[in-house]
């Protein structure tokens, strides 16, 4: 079987409204008063210096408790967000004793649902992990483990997907190919993707935002034209890349 591109519920991928988000530890404020709406059914890429609070923002949206973090998050359609979000964290969180295919279907098992092995196989094959389906995590390379975590996230088939540097451990060719596979699989969903790779953000993002070192300040970067994943050979891609590097270089400060 094949993996369908985009969600069956593409039209039901809600906007996400974040209000008054803050990350503070004692006298240190990483961001405060941050308001952001993620467009429903579209991909937003978030960049910013290490330690600025990008992962924390993902945790806030996912409803994961974390020290120092506050703010409200709601769905634009007014329905609860619980059960509608899949998150791919920086750490793969693979169970060491479980085969790759069982790690992929872990969420279903934990929820007491019947796992769909043929769908899991199709996703793993599409991510280039077909030959590794029966291996345990100790036998996987770092890049394979990251693809395993990606497979588990895609298997969840949620309308809202949060991804924290999902391709950071991959070689350039595999990264490029999996950006395409992932973009197709997530088309029509509400996606927030954190990355340190400016070209990746411009390939995949309907919107590209930089979280800067002035607490709570987000800067939106004008994106190039073209369908996602965008063609890096376009002239306006290089221009957008220049703007994005400039923004990252000055801490994302608003000009
Ligand atoms: N318990 C804590 N006490 C003090 N500071 C903390 C604590 N937990 C997290 N932090 C700080 O919160 C900040 C935000 O962390 P976060 O992981 O969200 O950043 P990030 O932008 O995702 O970083 P990276 O790009 O390196 O992944 C970091 O500077 C971190 O040091």
From TrEMBL:
A Pfam family of this chain: ABC_tran
The GO terms describing molecular function are: ATP binding; ATP hydrolysis activity
- In what residue span(s) does the ABC transporter domain sit? 16-240
Indicate yes or no for the key word Transport.
Answer: yes
Q: What keywords appear on the UniProt entry? A: ATP-binding, Nucleotide-binding, Transport
Keyword Nucleus annotated: no
**InterPro entries xref list:** AAA+_ATPase, ABC_transporter-like_ATP-bd, ABC_transporter-like_CS, ABC_transporter_ATP-bind, P-loop_NTPase
Identify its protein family: Belongs to the ABC transporter superfamily.
Matching entries from PANTHER family are given as: ALIPHATIC SULFONATES IMPORT ATP-BINDING PROTEIN SSUB 2, TAURINE IMPORT ATP-BINDING PROTEIN-RELATED
The name on file for this protein is ABC transporter ATP-binding protein
């Amino acid at each position: 079987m094949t993996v369908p591109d985009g969600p069956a519920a593409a039209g039901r991928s809600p906007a996400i409204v974040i209000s008054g988000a803050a990350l503070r530890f004692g006298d240190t404020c990483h961001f405060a008063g941050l308001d952001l709406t993620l467009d429903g059914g579209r991909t937003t890429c978030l960049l910013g210096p290490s330690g600025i609070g990008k992962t924390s923002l993902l945790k806030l949206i996912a409803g994961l408790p974390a020290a120092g973090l506050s703010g409200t998050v709601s769905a634009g359609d007014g329905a609860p967000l619980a059960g509608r979000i899949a998150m791919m964290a920086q750490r793969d969180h693979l169970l060491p004793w479980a085969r790759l295919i069982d790690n992929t279907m872990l969420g279903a098992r934990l929820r007491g649902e019947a796992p769909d092995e043929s769908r899991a196989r199709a996703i793993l094959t599409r991510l280039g992990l077909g030959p590794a389906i029966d291996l345990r995590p100790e036998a996987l390379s770092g890049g394979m483990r990251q693809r395993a975590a990606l497979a588990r996230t895609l298997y969840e088939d949620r309308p809202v997907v949060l991804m924290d540097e999902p391709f950071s451990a991959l070689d350039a060719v595999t990264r490029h190919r999996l950006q395409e596979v992932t973009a197709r699989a997530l088309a029509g969903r509400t996606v927030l993707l954190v990355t340190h790779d400016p070209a990746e953000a411009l390939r995949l993002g309907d919107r590209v935002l930089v979280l800067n070192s002035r607490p709570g300040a987000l800067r939106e970067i004008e994106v190039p034209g073209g369908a996602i994943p965008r063609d890096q050979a376009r002239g306006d891609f290089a221009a957008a890349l220049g703007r994005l590097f400039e923004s990252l270089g000055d801490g994302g400060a608003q000009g």
